Structures are given as C-alpha cells and as structure tokens.
Amino acid sequence: MPKQRPLTREESLARHREIALRAGRGELRLPDAIRAIREAEGLTQAAFAERVGLTRMRLLDLEKGRGNPKLETLQRICRPFGLEIGLVPRIRTLSGPE
Predict the structure, then answer these.
(1) Cβ proximity of 40 and 19 under 8 Å
(2) DSSP track, 11-60
(3) Of 1, 23, 55, 86, which residue is least crowded by CB atoms under 10 Å?
(4) What's the CA angle centered on 43, arms 14 and 30, to 5 degrees?
(5) Contacts 24+ apart (CB under 8 A), 64-72
(6) Global confidence as pTM
(7) How is domain 9-81 classified at the CATH fold level?
(8) CB contact at 8 A, 9 and 17
(9) Dmax over Cα atoms in the chain, in whole Å?
(10) From CA 61, how far away is CA 56, in angstroms rounded?
(11) Cα dist. 35→30, 44, 47, 96 in Å?
(12) Structural domain boundaries of the chain?
C-alpha cells in the first residue's frame, strides 16, 4: 500500500469541520464516522488502532459496521480527537415522523 502524505494542519481542520457538519445533519453512520475521524487525522488503520487502544482487526470490523462496540470503546475512539458520543436528531419531513 502506498505511503500517504501527511495532512497539513489546514487539511486536517477542514476534514474535522466536514465531519462536524455531516454529524450535525445526521448524515454519518457510526462506521462512516469512525473512518472519517481516522482519515481526518491522516492515520492508517494500524496507527489509529494503536492510538485508541484497539487491534487493527477490531477497528476494521467497526469501520465495516460489524460488531457492537461498547460505549467505552466509542469514547476511546472519540475523546483523543475532541469528540463526544451523543444523540443527533434526524431532520423530519413536514409529513411527520418516519
């Protein structure tokens, strides 16, 4: 796999802003959010997994939507990057709830 160029601070901040916007709009599923956080940091799966105390295979499972992570696991993923676990309301249409 080719080595990635490290992200500039501006690129990383832009990616973090995009993640926040997508999360606020309810557009991020958990697997997509985990991958987006990792990519915003410019980290490989192995480097990210080590940083948050997971195995690379466990991280891969989470990014693919497999498994049922504990709250503590999600907090370990989010906290180092200044993020919190929370509920985001979905925007409803004028016709009412789904």
Answers:
(1) yes
(2) HHHHHHHHHHHHHHTT---HHHHHHHHHHHTT--HHHHHHHHT--HHHHH
(3) 1
(4) 75
(5) 64/31, 65/29, 65/30, 65/31, 69/30
(6) 0.76
(7) 434 Repressor (Amino-terminal Domain) (1.10.260)
(8) no
(9) 49
(10) 9
(11) 9, 10, 13, 32
(12) 9-81
What are the pLDDT tens digits along the chain (98 aa)? 556 678 888 988 898 888 888 887 878 888 998 999 898 888 999 999 999 999 999 999 999 999 889 999 999 888 877 778 877 676 665 555 55
The residue with tokens 């192995």 is 46
Decide: 44 and 4 in contact? Cβ < 8 Å: yes
At position 82, the amino acid (one-letter code) is G
Q: How far is residue 30's CA from residue 15's CA, in Å, rounded to a whole number?
A: 17
For tokens 């989010």, name the residue.
78
Could you tell me the two tokens for 81?
Answer: 């990057």
